[in-house]
Amino acid sequence: MMNNVAVEVRDLVVRRGRARAVDGLTCSIPRGEVTGLLGPSGCGKSTLMRSVVGVQVVTSGTVEVLGLPAGDRRLRDRVGYVTQAPSVYDDLTVVENLRFFARVLGVADEEAERCLVAVDLAGARDQMVGRLSGGQRSRASLAVALLGRPELLVLDEPTVGLDPVLRRDLWAMFHALADGGTSVLVSSHVMDEAERCDRLLLMRDGRLLAADAPHRLLERTGTADVESAFLAIVEHAAEVPA
Protein backbone atom coordinates (compact mmCIF):
# COMPACT_ATOMS: atom_id res chain seq x y z
CA MET A 1 0.00 0.00 0.00
CA MET A 2 1.24 3.47 -0.84
CA ASN A 3 2.16 5.63 2.18
CA ASN A 4 -0.56 8.17 1.37
CA VAL A 5 -3.33 5.57 1.36
CA ALA A 6 -4.98 4.43 4.59
CA VAL A 7 -7.36 1.85 3.09
CA GLU A 8 -7.20 -0.02 -0.20
CA VAL A 9 -10.25 -2.04 -1.29
CA ARG A 10 -9.96 -4.23 -4.38
CA ASP A 11 -12.80 -6.07 -6.14
CA LEU A 12 -14.74 -6.51 -2.90
CA VAL A 13 -17.82 -8.73 -3.01
CA VAL A 14 -20.05 -9.39 -0.01
CA ARG A 15 -23.10 -11.60 -0.43
CA ARG A 16 -26.24 -11.62 1.70
CA GLY A 17 -28.08 -14.72 0.59
CA ARG A 18 -28.28 -14.49 -3.19
CA ALA A 19 -27.92 -10.71 -3.26
CA ARG A 20 -24.64 -8.82 -3.43
CA ALA A 21 -24.57 -6.24 -0.64
CA VAL A 22 -21.25 -5.04 -2.07
CA ASP A 23 -20.73 -5.78 -5.74
CA GLY A 24 -17.12 -5.78 -6.97
CA LEU A 25 -16.18 -2.52 -5.28
CA THR A 26 -12.70 -1.00 -5.62
CA CYS A 27 -11.69 2.22 -3.87
CA SER A 28 -8.98 3.85 -1.77
CA ILE A 29 -9.18 6.10 1.27
CA PRO A 30 -6.39 8.67 1.66
CA ARG A 31 -4.48 9.29 4.84
CA GLY A 32 -5.13 12.50 6.72
CA GLU A 33 -8.42 13.36 5.03
CA VAL A 34 -12.13 13.21 5.79
CA THR A 35 -13.67 10.79 3.30
CA GLY A 36 -17.45 10.74 3.09
CA LEU A 37 -19.26 7.54 2.15
CA LEU A 38 -22.64 8.61 0.82
CA GLY A 39 -25.66 6.85 -0.57
CA PRO A 40 -29.23 5.85 0.29
CA SER A 41 -30.02 3.53 3.18
CA GLY A 42 -29.42 -0.08 2.20
CA CYS A 43 -26.86 0.67 -0.51
CA GLY A 44 -24.02 -1.19 1.24
CA LYS A 45 -22.30 1.57 3.23
CA SER A 46 -22.38 -0.26 6.55
CA THR A 47 -21.28 -3.51 4.92
CA LEU A 48 -18.29 -1.77 3.37
CA MET A 49 -17.38 -0.20 6.70
CA ARG A 50 -17.66 -3.55 8.48
CA SER A 51 -15.33 -4.97 5.84
CA VAL A 52 -12.81 -2.20 6.48
CA VAL A 53 -12.72 -2.86 10.23
CA GLY A 54 -12.55 -6.62 9.66
CA VAL A 55 -15.82 -7.78 11.21
CA GLN A 56 -17.58 -8.68 7.96
CA VAL A 57 -17.31 -12.04 6.21
CA VAL A 58 -16.42 -11.22 2.61
CA THR A 59 -17.09 -13.40 -0.43
CA SER A 60 -14.08 -12.28 -2.45
CA GLY A 61 -11.68 -9.40 -2.94
CA THR A 62 -9.24 -7.79 -0.53
CA VAL A 63 -9.25 -4.99 2.02
CA GLU A 64 -5.95 -3.61 3.27
CA VAL A 65 -5.87 -1.18 6.21
CA LEU A 66 -2.77 0.78 7.22
CA GLY A 67 -0.65 -1.74 5.35
CA LEU A 68 -2.23 -4.80 6.98
CA PRO A 69 -5.15 -7.12 6.12
CA ALA A 70 -8.44 -5.80 7.52
CA GLY A 71 -9.15 -7.35 10.90
CA ASP A 72 -5.50 -8.05 11.70
CA ARG A 73 -5.07 -8.00 15.48
CA ARG A 74 -2.24 -5.48 15.11
CA LEU A 75 -4.87 -2.95 14.02
CA ARG A 76 -6.85 -3.22 17.25
CA ASP A 77 -5.54 0.01 18.78
CA ARG A 78 -4.95 1.77 15.45
CA VAL A 79 -8.55 1.78 14.18
CA GLY A 80 -11.55 3.36 15.93
CA TYR A 81 -15.04 2.25 14.89
CA VAL A 82 -18.43 3.74 15.69
CA THR A 83 -21.44 1.65 14.69
CA GLN A 84 -24.94 3.01 14.07
CA ALA A 85 -26.12 1.38 17.30
CA PRO A 86 -24.20 2.78 20.30
CA SER A 87 -21.60 0.25 21.46
CA VAL A 88 -21.36 1.15 25.14
CA TYR A 89 -22.68 -0.47 28.32
CA ASP A 90 -25.99 0.93 29.57
CA ASP A 91 -25.36 -0.12 33.18
CA LEU A 92 -22.12 1.88 33.48
CA THR A 93 -21.67 5.63 33.64
CA VAL A 94 -20.14 7.47 30.71
CA VAL A 95 -16.75 7.79 32.38
CA GLU A 96 -16.83 4.17 33.62
CA ASN A 97 -17.36 3.03 30.02
CA LEU A 98 -14.43 5.09 28.85
CA ARG A 99 -12.13 3.90 31.61
CA PHE A 100 -13.10 0.29 30.94
CA PHE A 101 -12.32 0.53 27.22
CA ALA A 102 -9.14 2.50 27.97
CA ARG A 103 -7.89 -0.44 30.03
CA VAL A 104 -8.86 -2.90 27.27
CA LEU A 105 -6.81 -0.84 24.81
CA GLY A 106 -3.98 -0.32 27.26
CA VAL A 107 -4.15 3.47 27.27
CA ALA A 108 -4.01 5.84 30.23
CA ASP A 109 -7.16 6.81 32.14
CA GLU A 110 -6.39 10.42 31.25
CA GLU A 111 -7.46 9.54 27.72
CA ALA A 112 -11.01 9.08 29.02
CA GLU A 113 -11.13 12.69 30.22
CA ARG A 114 -9.74 14.01 26.93
CA CYS A 115 -12.32 12.10 24.90
CA LEU A 116 -15.20 13.21 27.14
CA VAL A 117 -14.31 16.82 26.43
CA ALA A 118 -13.85 16.15 22.71
CA VAL A 119 -17.47 14.98 22.32
CA ASP A 120 -18.94 17.51 24.78
CA LEU A 121 -19.95 14.95 27.40
CA ALA A 122 -17.92 16.18 30.36
CA GLY A 123 -21.11 17.42 32.00
CA ALA A 124 -22.66 13.94 31.74
CA ARG A 125 -19.59 11.98 32.83
CA ASP A 126 -21.28 10.43 35.89
CA GLN A 127 -24.64 9.66 34.27
CA MET A 128 -25.65 6.08 33.51
CA VAL A 129 -25.46 5.51 29.77
CA GLY A 130 -28.88 3.83 29.79
CA ARG A 131 -30.44 7.13 30.92
CA LEU A 132 -28.84 9.27 28.22
CA SER A 133 -30.60 10.57 25.13
CA GLY A 134 -29.97 8.82 21.84
CA GLY A 135 -27.62 11.57 20.69
CA GLN A 136 -25.65 11.45 23.95
CA ARG A 137 -25.28 7.66 23.70
CA SER A 138 -23.95 8.06 20.15
CA ARG A 139 -21.43 10.60 21.41
CA ALA A 140 -20.38 8.22 24.18
CA SER A 141 -19.62 5.60 21.49
CA LEU A 142 -17.64 8.18 19.55
CA ALA A 143 -15.64 9.02 22.68
CA VAL A 144 -14.71 5.34 23.04
CA ALA A 145 -13.58 5.23 19.40
CA LEU A 146 -11.30 8.24 20.01
CA LEU A 147 -9.39 6.52 22.83
CA GLY A 148 -5.71 6.15 22.04
CA ARG A 149 -5.81 8.57 19.11
CA PRO A 150 -6.45 6.00 16.33
CA GLU A 151 -4.83 6.41 12.92
CA LEU A 152 -8.09 5.49 11.17
CA LEU A 153 -11.53 6.47 12.44
CA VAL A 154 -14.52 4.69 10.86
CA LEU A 155 -17.86 6.35 11.68
CA ASP A 156 -21.19 4.88 10.58
CA GLU A 157 -23.68 7.78 10.44
CA PRO A 158 -22.38 9.41 13.65
CA THR A 159 -24.46 12.61 13.36
CA VAL A 160 -27.92 11.02 13.14
CA GLY A 161 -30.25 12.58 15.73
CA LEU A 162 -27.84 15.33 16.75
CA ASP A 163 -28.76 19.02 16.83
CA PRO A 164 -27.24 21.32 14.17
CA VAL A 165 -24.76 22.95 16.55
CA LEU A 166 -23.33 19.64 17.73
CA ARG A 167 -23.24 18.32 14.16
CA ARG A 168 -21.20 21.38 13.17
CA ASP A 169 -18.85 20.90 16.11
CA LEU A 170 -18.35 17.19 15.35
CA TRP A 171 -17.50 17.90 11.73
CA ALA A 172 -15.00 20.50 12.91
CA MET A 173 -13.49 17.83 15.17
CA PHE A 174 -13.30 15.33 12.28
CA HIS A 175 -11.31 17.86 10.25
CA ALA A 176 -9.08 18.70 13.20
CA LEU A 177 -8.32 14.98 13.56
CA ALA A 178 -7.56 14.75 9.84
CA ASP A 179 -5.28 17.79 10.05
CA GLY A 180 -3.41 15.91 12.76
CA GLY A 181 -2.92 12.89 10.49
CA THR A 182 -5.93 10.72 11.34
CA SER A 183 -7.79 9.27 8.37
CA VAL A 184 -11.55 9.65 8.84
CA LEU A 185 -14.14 7.58 6.95
CA VAL A 186 -17.66 8.78 7.75
CA SER A 187 -20.90 7.52 6.24
CA SER A 188 -24.14 9.43 5.81
CA HIS A 189 -27.32 9.33 3.77
CA VAL A 190 -27.73 13.10 4.33
CA MET A 191 -26.43 14.81 1.22
CA ASP A 192 -25.95 18.22 2.84
CA GLU A 193 -23.10 16.73 4.89
CA ALA A 194 -21.23 15.78 1.74
CA GLU A 195 -19.71 19.18 1.15
CA ARG A 196 -18.02 18.99 4.55
CA CYS A 197 -15.81 16.15 3.25
CA ASP A 198 -12.43 16.33 1.50
CA ARG A 199 -13.34 13.39 -0.71
CA LEU A 200 -16.54 11.51 -1.48
CA LEU A 201 -17.38 7.91 -2.29
CA LEU A 202 -20.89 7.71 -3.77
CA MET A 203 -22.58 4.30 -3.51
CA ARG A 204 -25.79 2.81 -4.85
CA ASP A 205 -26.98 -0.80 -4.90
CA GLY A 206 -23.66 -2.09 -3.58
CA ARG A 207 -21.60 -0.37 -6.27
CA LEU A 208 -19.30 2.63 -6.27
CA LEU A 209 -20.63 5.27 -8.66
CA ALA A 210 -18.01 7.96 -8.13
CA ALA A 211 -14.96 8.83 -6.03
CA ASP A 212 -13.72 12.41 -6.06
CA ALA A 213 -13.57 15.72 -4.20
CA PRO A 214 -16.99 17.42 -3.87
CA HIS A 215 -16.05 20.41 -6.04
CA ARG A 216 -14.79 18.15 -8.81
CA LEU A 217 -18.02 16.14 -8.77
CA LEU A 218 -19.97 19.39 -9.16
CA GLU A 219 -17.74 20.49 -12.04
CA ARG A 220 -18.02 17.10 -13.73
CA THR A 221 -21.79 17.01 -13.57
CA GLY A 222 -22.45 20.72 -14.01
CA THR A 223 -24.59 20.81 -10.89
CA ALA A 224 -24.84 23.18 -7.92
CA ASP A 225 -24.94 20.71 -5.03
CA VAL A 226 -23.88 17.16 -4.21
CA GLU A 227 -27.43 15.78 -4.18
CA SER A 228 -27.95 16.99 -7.76
CA ALA A 229 -24.55 15.60 -8.73
CA PHE A 230 -25.47 12.22 -7.22
CA LEU A 231 -28.74 12.14 -9.16
CA ALA A 232 -26.96 13.11 -12.39
CA ILE A 233 -24.42 10.30 -11.88
CA VAL A 234 -27.21 7.79 -11.18
CA GLU A 235 -29.09 8.84 -14.32
CA HIS A 236 -25.94 8.60 -16.41
CA ALA A 237 -25.20 5.12 -15.04
CA ALA A 238 -28.73 4.02 -15.96
CA GLU A 239 -28.18 5.16 -19.56
CA VAL A 240 -24.96 3.16 -19.96
CA PRO A 241 -25.60 -0.40 -21.22
CA ALA A 242 -24.61 -3.11 -18.75
Largest sheet: 6 strands, mixed
Q: Biggest sheet: strands side by side, in what order? A: 6-7-8-3-9-10
Indicate the mean pLDDT.
90
| Overall radius of gyration | 18 Å
Order of helices and strands: EEEHEEEHHHEHEEEHH
Tell me, what's the shape?
globular
Structural class category: alpha/beta
> Helix tally?
7
Please give the number of β-strands. 10
- Which residues sit in consecutive blocks of at least 5 with pLDDT less than 50? none
Name the quaternary structure.
single chain
The span between the termini is 31 Å
Binned strand content: 25-35%
Helix content: 25-40%
Topology at a glance:
Layout: E1 5-16, E2 19-30, E3 34-38, H1 45-53, E4 60-65, E5 68-69, E6 79-82, H2 94-105, H3 110-118, H4 134-146, E7 152-156, H5 164-179, E8 183-188, E9 199-204, E10 207-212, H6 214-221, H7 226-239
Parallel strand pairs: 3-8, 3-9, 6-7, 7-8
Antiparallel strand pairs: 1-2, 1-4, 4-5, 9-10
Helix pairs in contact: 2-3, 3-4, 6-7
In short:
33% of the residues lie in helices and 26% in strands. The chain is of the alpha/beta class and 242 residues long. The protein starts with a strand and ends with a helix.
Your description of this structure?
The protein is of the alpha/beta class and 242 residues long. The chain has seven helices and ten strands. A six-stranded mixed β-sheet has the order 6-7-8-3-9-10, sandwiched between helices. A four-stranded antiparallel β-sheet has the order 2-1-4-5, covered by helices on one side. Helix 2 (94-105) packs across helix 3. It starts with a strand and ends with a helix. The mean pLDDT is 90.
